[in-house]
Amino acid sequence: MQLPAGTQLVPLDSRDRLEEVLRFDAWAYPTGVAISDLLELAIPLPWGRAWGVENEAGELAAMYAAYTLASFPVPGAVVPGAWLTWVGVHPGYRRRGILRELIAHHFADCLSRGEAISGLNAAEAGIYGRFGYGMAATQVSLTIPRGASLRDVAGSAELLVELREWDAGRDGAEIAALHAGYAAVPEGLGRPGWVTWETAGLRASADQDAPALREGLEAERLLVVRDTAGAPRGYARFRRKPGWKRNVPDGTVELRDVVALDAAAAHRIWSVLLDLDLMARVETGPLTTDDPILTLLVDARSAMPVTNDLEWVRILDLPRALAERRYAAPIDVVLEVTDALVPANAGRWRVVAEAYGHAEVTQTAEEPDLWLDIRELGAAHLGATSLAALAQAGLVRGDTQAIARAGTAWSWPIAAGASWVF
To answer: By CB count within 10 A, which of 20, 72, 250, 318 is most buried?
Structure first.
C-alpha cells in the first residue's frame, strides 16, 4: 500500500477501540448524539473485518469496514458478498489518496474470501463510481396524505391487526423472519438487493429503540397483520410526530420499514397507517420502486414520490459474478470490459445463458458485441438499471440489436432494492 508517510494500516479487531472509532466517525459523519450515548447502543461495526489508518501518534486518520453477507440476493439466486461500510477519512487527511488505498485493500480482501461482489450505500453519490461501483438500485420515498384512497384488494378485511409498542425481545425474531422472507417474494423470482439482518450485529442494531435515536419522538410502534390462523403476513414499524396548525391536527407518521408478503397484507397495513388519529400524513423511509403502495394508491401523485440512489454494486470477480445470477431472457453476447482497478476483469467475455438460467462465462478472442466499463456492468447486475438506458447515455456501446438483447437478459421482473440503509 502507498499510504502517506507516517501512517499505517492496522486491523480494528477489538471492541476496546469503540470509543476511539466513534469519536473518529463523528469527524467523518457529524452527529448530534453524545459519544456517551452512542457507547450504550448496539453498534454493528464488524470487528475483525474493520481496518484503520493510524498516524504516528496512533490516532485514526481513516477507516473502513465490511459486513460479510452470506446471502446477498441477486437475480434468481443468493450469493456471498461484502457490504462496504464505515468508510471515512479525517478532514485533516483528505486529498492524500488514502481512500483509494482503502478501497484497493477492500477489493483484495473480498477476493481472498471468495466474494465476487461488493455493495454499499453511498453517503455522497459522486464518490464511488470512480472505483467501479455502479448505481444498481433506486429507492423511492413518499409523503402520503392521511385518508388517501386505496384500490380494493380481496381478503384484506379478513386479516387481523395488532398494534403495540415495539419490544425487541418479544417481536424481534418474528419481524426478522418476515423481513428475510420478503427476499423470496414472489416465489420463484425473489427481490434482488433485499439485504436482511443476517449478522448478529446488524440484527441487534435493527432491533434497538434507544431513546438517543428517537430525536424526541415516541417509542417505536409495531403493526402486525395476521391471517385467521394467526400466521404473520406483514408488519410496519413507525413513530408518530405530533403537530398542530391553527388547532387542526398536523401529525406525521414516520414509517421506518414495512413488509407485506401478499397484496391483501399490504392493503391492510396501509389502511391502518393512513387512518391513525391526529395524523396528517405518512412519511416513508426507503421503498422499492415497485412497492405495492405505489399501485394501491388511487392517486399516487398525491404521495409526492421522490427517488434517489440506494444500492451500489461493484463486480470484483467478473466470470463468477455473471455466472452466479440468472437472466430474464436467452443471451449469447461478447462483452469488451474495461476495469482500471481489477485487471483480471478486463478483456473480452462471452456470456451464454438460457432464459431464467445461469450463464456460462468464458474469455474469448471473438469480436465484441458490447463495450462497457465494469461500473456499468455493476449498475446492471441487480436487474434494475437497464443496459439500454446506459447505452442511451453513451456509457455502453454496441449495435441496437445487441443492446436490446442484453438489456432484456440482464433485467429482472422484480425491482431491486432494500428497506433500510446499512
So the answer is: 72
Q: Which residue matches cell numbers 465484441?
A: 368
Is 98 annotated in some ligand binding site? Answer: yes
H/E stretch holding 390: helix 387-392
Confirm whether residue 129 is marked as ligand binding: no
143-304 CATH fold: Aminopeptidase (3.40.630)
pTM over 0.90: yes
Strands 396-398 and 370-373: antiparallel
Cell of 128: 464511488
Fold category of 8-115 in CATH: Aminopeptidase (3.40.630)
Q: Is 246 assigned a ligand-binding role in the annotation?
A: no
Quick check: is 131 catalytic? no
Distance CA 228, CA 343 (A): 57
Residue type, 419: S
Is 422 catalytic? The answer is yes
Condensed to tens digits (0 to 9), the pLDDT of residues 245-277 reads 999 999 999 999 999 999 999 999 999 999 999
**CATH assignment of 317-410, among 3.40.50.300, 3.30.1050.10, 3.30.9.10, 3.30.70.60:** 3.30.1050.10
